[in-house]
Specification:
Shape of chain C: globular
Largest sheet of chain C: 8 strands, mixed
Oligomer: heterotrimer
Order of helices and strands of chain C: EEEHEEHEHHHEHEHEEHHEHEEE
CATH class of the largest domain in chain C: Alpha Beta
Number of strands of chain C: 14
Strand content of chain C: 15-25%
Radius of gyration of chain B: 21 Å
Strand order of the largest sheet of chain B: 7-8-9-3-10-11-13-12
Structural class of chain C: alpha/beta
Number of helices of chain C: 10
Low-confidence stretches of chain B: 1-13
Distance between the termini of chain B: 61 Å
Chains: A mainly alpha (about 300), B alpha/beta (about 350), C alpha/beta (about 325)
Largest sheet of chain B: 8 strands, mixed
Amino acid sequence: MTLGNWLALFVALVTAAEVVRALRHRALRRDQWGRRFFRLRTTSWGLGILMFLVIVALVAPLIAPFDPNRQLDIVHLTNQPPSWTFLLGTDPLSRDVWSRVVYGARVSLGIGALGALVAVALGTLVGAIAGYYRRWIDAALMRGVDVGLALPRIFILLMAVALWDGLPFAALVIAIGLTSWFGTSRLVRAEVLSLRQRDFVVAARALGAGSSRVILRHVLPNAAAPIIVAAALGVGNVLLLEAALSFLGIGVPPPDASWGNMIADGAPGLYTAPWSTFFPGLAISLVVMSLNAVADGVRDAMNPREDTT
Amino acid sequence: MTAPAAPAAPAAPPVLLRVRDLKTYFVTEHGKGTARAVDDVSFDLFPGETLGIVGESGCGKTVTSLSILRLVPEPPGHVLPGSLIEFEGRNLLALSAPELRAVRGNQIAMIFQEPMTSLNPVFTVGDQIAEAAIIHQHLSRRAARARAIEMLRLVGIPDPDERVDDYPHQLSGGMRQRVMIAMALICHPKVLIADEPTTALDVTIQAQILELLDRLQHELGMAVLLITHDLGVVAGHADRVVVMYAGRVVETATTDALFEQPTHPYTEGLLAAVPRIDARRARLHAIPGQVPAATAWPPGCRFHPRCPYAWEKCVAEEPPLLDAGDGAGHAARCWLVTEPERRVPKR
Amino acid sequence: MTLVEVQDLVKHYPGERSWFGLGAPRAAVRAVDGVSFTIASGRTLGLVGESGSGKTSVGRTMLRLQEPTAGKVLFDGNDVFALDAARLRALRRRMQIVFQDPYSSLNPRMTVEATLREPLEIHRLNGAVSALLEEVGLDAAFAKRYPHELSGGQRQRVGIARALSVEPQFIVCDEPVSALDVSVQAQVLNLLADLQAKRRLTYLFIAHDLAVVRHIADDVAVMYLGKIVERAPAAEIYAQPRHPYTTALLSAVPEPNPRATKQRIVLAGDMPSAAHPPAGCPFHPRCPHPMKSDRCRTEVPALRPITTGHLAACHYAQSPMTLADAAHQPLNRPRHQ
């Protein structure tokens, strides 16, 4: 680690903390939405950690002291424990773990966010349509979902990889998203089924509101809480799925680092060099916990009942 | 074992259940205030009588009934020290948990408004009715089941031998309420607290259930605390009435006196607001405004912001329960008792 | 002039099929089974029945909030069930609904203002939220509130304001006061009466409470198990009910008068399930009419005129049951003294 790296890291940390502080300050003064969002202290922490990780990913070259893919010295520098030079140690191929975690944030956060976004959007869409229109649409979609839930996801992805040689990053994200929405659609459908019976939804229809308006303004906002929780958990799931895929050798192709394939790479040396799996694992856990904290905040913010004033 | 027929050790006191200065407060959700749901309520229940407690939602009638058996969830609720709930000379508020359990369901039983949620959906009605007998009278399963069938017959359920094995969802609302009554009465309690027992039922079913309660009270000789918002139900079924408003008792009287000469302006307004089936009125009398929040009762008389007669004294000072002087215990928490000439509506 | 005409309306809810729709369906619930009536412009028809009678389904099917199984509804000459989506939407402006439960009828995530502004947006109307609020007796400051900050009566007023926002001619009031406290119930009933007079509204007032209906309805129809069993001008039906169910229903209303000498008929049993209605007259298993005969068990009585404007579906409506006929008892039980 050079002085420049430390400085950049410090600046990233301070920036994240200050931005959250400023946001919180403004939100608490200004509006109900913000006040409800920041009601729980954990939300601020989660937001801060996520922001820090995003900044780190963005300015990775400034923070990482080494080229993440470079094998520094395959003879002398494999499986080095953490030190001032190698902050988080080195992996079995003598690559700097810290640099790989930093660069891996780009890949993993990208896959996680986009994959979960695709999954939640698709799940919400299908669930809302099935639950709102019911009848044969519902029956057809839900039978499809049953099949999707019954087939092992890894198996579907393996088939996709087999059919499509050299999977590009975007295709991987989409493939993960396309196989992760079944549970969410079930959840959303159940919410929509009960909400569509509620009088305020009937009232909106009686006033002449079209289906899209009813769904977007009256049904989905009231189903937001489970959707948001599903999204937060979904990111974690996608990160773990990517790790599993990397383990099978069909995830992010080497030598590029993702937190998932770092765990896969380090797994054989779990006892002798735990740091090369521990730190990417820690990063995944941090993201999942922070997301859950932020999800709690969003859920509260969307529910006017949470207002304390 | 306390068999209901066993003679009570001391001479039976004239008052069966004495409630004095009952205060049950709730800490509100975000800890920002105290809801004074029941605020200094006193009344007596005599053996064999029906006492009606009437009031609208938020007046504290249900919390009062829950407080008697200490069923108020704590926290957020708590019964304040200084409150007294005396049953046959024992302060229920001072009993230990096992002593209290021996009273609950055995000597004082309760039925609730919602017969669907008050029954456990995964047990048969027979199991649920028998439970109290097994707990309190230590009956065997077989004997308890026989008692359950007997109780189902008593509450007028046809084919009790078969219905005893039904699950709650197989019964109609009226039948479920009968099952609730059977559960409550299996130990022959001395007091039955009926909290809006017919509110969730249709009017023809309500008539059946009220008739059943009257008959059972007559046969079993128990006292009934009938909690309701429906003045019609009170008129037909209570001997005496306590009217509650904003956590307070505002009027108490015999049923006849209350309906003949409602003294508190709230009682008067409530009676006038009931749509009557015997005559069409062009406009219904409405009490203006809303029931205030339990965290901020108005100062002075709690009814004064909605009262058509209120004057300065009502804002400044809350009246005590004043004897209306009919010799039968008619009392009202209103300054009009002392200054009847002011009963002239301002609006 | 007739504004609303309902002809032989039928609404059955099909029984669920098991096994992906391949198994045998369970019996259909015949919620509404051939209901006809008309409402003249500016008048109120009270539709009375107990839970399970099908009264709510009538109101919702009329507005085509659910699709009918059969029958016809004419609104100002338009066949409501034959309209395409665009014309139905236009007609929605003229027919509105007010709901029973003030807690579920407002979107908890929308302020009062957003709730009232939405219909104006849908139909591109110029209207002021504050004027609507004033009309239902609420202060303009309520616009910024959320439903959970309002009392039941205030919510119900917002629900009424929402229905009024599109300036309808006809409103289905689906038990609008049965969830409210007595004192507030009177406020809302008076408000509905005032609005009717001011805006010349036509109401279908659905209720289970005959006493409430008496104060607002010009005509009353009583439903039992998906059918109208009696229909007459209000004064007439309260004075001289022709169907034994109506008689029993009237007698069962608890009166706030301890000295009432009224006699009460306590009907035995429950209303049968609408999935398996009894043969013949739907009311016969519970009917206390002294002339009840085999005919009641086999032949469905038609809703027919008994006197001018007074219809009843009872084979023996010409000689209506009196309270003394029925198995009765005094309203006041012996008092404990």
